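Dear colleague,

Thank you for sharing your sequence with our group. We've completed the structure prediction you requested, and as agreed, I am returning the results in plain text so they can be pasted directly into your records. Please verify that the sequence below matches your submission; if there's any discrepancy, let me know and we will rerun it promptly.
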Amino acid sequence: MPDGKFNRRLKLRRLLDRWNIGAVILICILKILQYIKKMGFKVEESGWRKFAGIFLRKEHSKFILSVFRLKYCRKINKPKNFDEAKDFLIKKLAVFLREHASYHWCFEYSLFRARRKRIYFTDITETVFSESGKLEKIIPYFDETRVSFAMLSERIKRKALRKIVIVFNQNEKKRVGDVKRAKVISGKLRRWAWKVTGITHTGRQDLFDYIDRILTSTFIHFEELTGGDLLKERLKTPYMQSKRHPGFGLLNVVCRFTPSYKEADLWVQYHHVPVDGMPMEELLETLKKQWGVAGKIKFPALKDASPEIRYHGDGIYRGRIFVHFEKILKLRKYLNEKYLSEMEGAVTIPGMIIWGLAQREYFKDTKFVITTDLKVEDTVLQDRNLGLVFIRPGDYNKGQGRLKDFLEFQRELNSRIYLTKNGKSETNELLDIYAMVHPSVILAVGVLLPRAVKEVVGTAGITVLKNTEIFISPLTDLQVRGFVSIGNMKVETEDGKTAGAVSFCAKRKQVREYIKGFRELTNNYHRFLEIEEPDY
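Please find the predicted structure tokens below.
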């Protein structure tokens, strides 16, 4: 890469675009902590993982990845009914999970944050929910490679399963908060286990383990597609609020079978504290290669596709639209061919999106965060982490011509992405400082200096996973103007065109503004640059 901005000196003040008293105080705090870090203070935890544990604890912080048309069985042993299909898929999924250590996580809550924790069993629990969201039954499938619960009778196991269902439904009625729910359920079940009679001391320990294994297992809910409008049915986003994981497990899966049971669609919900989107996307690609797919999913013709908007709770809505990205992708290619040197790198899709949104009045002062996978190899952490890039596109509307403004914006964004990927940006330093500080201090600063914190981390975000068909967006506690996620932008539609699924997690008005913004930028982006529409 070239010199200059790509190798500039680290300055924490670059984290701020607007200055006020709170911002000055925050920078002073960060400078003191930076000095302590330079004195040799070390931490063994990733700053990103700590950030996630503090600000990604709630249900709307989870993300969902989809995989369609899986060939989970061979033609010679095709399931004859729903129960056979479920049993076959669970056994095959258990083997896949067992083979990949990236899935061997659960999480645990403390007062101020959530932490990830290693697990050593590949357990899956089937859930049966009513249409109203009431948990009716759970069926555990424990790791077949281990012998477990030898001291528990079948009667005690059945009692434990019924108790888990009862406690979960009681807590749903009381609307126990996301951060407390799993801990409250676990506490009630352990207190019940202490009171169970007719059981030995060793048996009681097995009962505790039995409950814990279920609460940290992968939960899966099965559905049958009716075969009416099959494409519309299989693309409908599952309402995970009515199928919530009651415990500390990483995965919550909805599996949909086609009427013939030949194909299965998986919607996999991940808790964001243990894992991130890109590694999970890669594992689903591995799943598709190992199991095989019956073909590629198609999106509906855009004229027939209406926005999907649903209330998520806590004032948050989730929306999804299908967008024709062909014009913007061709314009990106044109800009890269003509202005690559001026931008000191290629145009990025997230950069084009947030620049386009910032041309609307609603988003013109919004500071965005873009997620990126780090290239840095950390021998202590031994796993991948995300990097964060903060930028306010509206600050680059300097009146020197829209095209020139955009090129300067993209050049600065390329610089920040490059430095962040290589662990040399101000945001990397910020996350390293986060790792040094107790979560209570970080939360206190957010309460005492809210404007300053928002100035640093932004109020909206965007993330792109180019290989997944549908990527349902998460939302942090900090990005109060919502988060956008985009999957594969070149999925074939029923009318022979291409489109991408765009997901929003935000307040209702914000979702509507995002939809308006995307419709405008994907059709008229050349006008944002004040150029004639190129002859591609």
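Summary note from our side: Residues 160 and 482 are 40 Å apart (CA to CA).

Kind regards,
the structure core
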